Amino acid sequence: MHILTAEARTHYLEKYPIHDFFSFDIEPYLEVCQFDKGEWIFQEGSFPETLYYMIEGKAKLYMTHKNGKVSLIEYLEAPRFMGEIELLNEARYTKGIQTVTKTICYSITQSCKEKLLADALFLRRLCVFLGEKATKITAKYTQNQAYPFENRLAAFIQLSADQGVYKEKHTEICEYLGVSYRHLLYVLAQFCEEKILEKRKSGYHIIDEKRLAQLSQEIQ
Amino acid sequence: MHILTAEARTHYLEKYPIHDFFSFDIEPYLEVCQFDKGEWIFQEGSFPETLYYMIEGKAKLYMTHKNGKVSLIEYLEAPRFMGEIELLNEARYTKGIQTVTKTICYSITQSCKEKLLADALFLRRLCVFLGEKATKITAKYTQNQAYPFENRLAAFIQLSADQGVYKEKHTEICEYLGVSYRHLLYVLAQFCEEKILEKRKSGYHIIDEKRLAQLSQEIQ
DNA sequence: TAAAAAATATGAGATATCTCACATTATTGT
DNA sequence: ACAATAATGTGAGATATCTCATATTTTTTA
Prior knowledge:
homodimer; alpha+beta; Jelly Rolls; Arc Repressor Mutant, subunit A; five-stranded antiparallel beta sheet; four-stranded antiparallel beta sheet; 8 helices; 12 strands; elongated; DNA-binding
């Protein structure tokens, strides 16, 4: 992680205004910083002392279980807060967050913690953010247990395909969707067999859009 | 649902003080109400116009999927807010909430919505509540996909057993834990076979506490 | 650019979990 | 007190999903 210079700072603050999040001047407490691809923003189990607001980039939220199994819990995409739970509660240790791409964040030091926690404007925005977060997680996991993997995968392919081509990393996606690597490959092969997808060098091409939509619509 | 009289109102307000949630006087906007066992607090799909704070009782949060499958998402236990997401966002329709026992709530009309959304004291408490909610849901569902049902059931039995006896309703629990009724019965039978539980008229008695703890501790 | 590490691929066998059908109690409303 | 409804219990067969072993290809790193 490194902190950006005055020029870059000005540029980002103009591009992604944040002043209206607060009813006091946040600039003295704010820095613009950059994480390289693959860098860890929070180490799992640490006690973070900074509130981040991600403005560009993408990261993954991880958690390691006692049995050593690692779950990819969520993709975090800009714009969003990180470390907000730790701001509200004392001494909460965090899950791990690792960037997927180069990521730019506003970092807000906890030296203005008191001010933040007394600022209705900021708190209201945080409430909305947290509420949406809870709703989204609930929806995702409720689906997970109510639908077979086939439907969830179809939905995910629709969501993540670019120009009709699906080319995510299997190792990552099987974690995210909560199935084994083997099973993901099985179902992808099955989609190919059923002529819904076609596997080429460039990725899995969607050839039966309609059928895919049908499968995924059983969810939404 | 019916609204309690002045005496009862005073009694509850003394027993469960709520004044310090707000920096203004909430009493003019507040009523104490009671829901009977099995009554619906929110009908699924409706647009609630009241913020509730449950002070006594227990309820279940439900959601119906497109395919007709119903998920029991969460047990809601006092004390907690209900309808807070709908207060923050315009026109959000809600999931269904049905009481399990007689339930007492403070109901807060949306006529003080503006005041609430400008009150840092209240918003801060709401943030903490929402943050915990998100954390809890994440933990629950992350476990769901990382551990086989055997472990989760062991943990749930430990949690819900009363004096060493487990006697929840199967129909409800299989929904909550996200498995079929049949499978729940299988695993309970398996626990009996392994002499972890013993089935009697009064319920399933825990006879091998140690082994049960072992199974469930693989999670926590 | 060679070696190491990560990602992809596939087979085979095990098991966790589901669906459906049906019988037997409890519980509840009238 | 009786009918209706909900909850419990069990068998059998299907299938969704996992584990493990092993080979190949791609990407990363020294």
